[in-house]
Amino acid sequence: QVQLVESGGGLVQAGGSLRLSCAASGGTFSNYAMGWFRQAPGKEREFVAAIPWSVGSNTYYADSVKGRFTISRDNAKNVLYLQMNNLRPEDSAVYYCAARPGVGGISYSANRYGTWGQGTQVTVSS
Prior knowledge:
With 126 residues, the protein is mainly β. The protein is built from no helices and eleven strands. It is globular.
């Protein structure tokens, strides 16, 4: 079973950028499809982006982040990334990475992912 640890969150002004990382250990990272989700106070956890197990495959984004965020993975380093550009105050949330077995493909639904990191806080000031 893979374990996940996020990093890279912080406080940034609107229009700024952050890159989140999710380090995987204890399993074969390349066997998992990966996703990023976020949860703001008082709101449900929502899908942000996902990437299949194979590097170079299509990537998937929520409409709210399309064109601003980029998900990528380095299977040799066992790391998932989320590059976030042109950040907005409404992007403020705790961001989580999640894994599910690669044979199932990506999913937009949080309950399809069985392994989660502890989350990293992103705060965007206006």
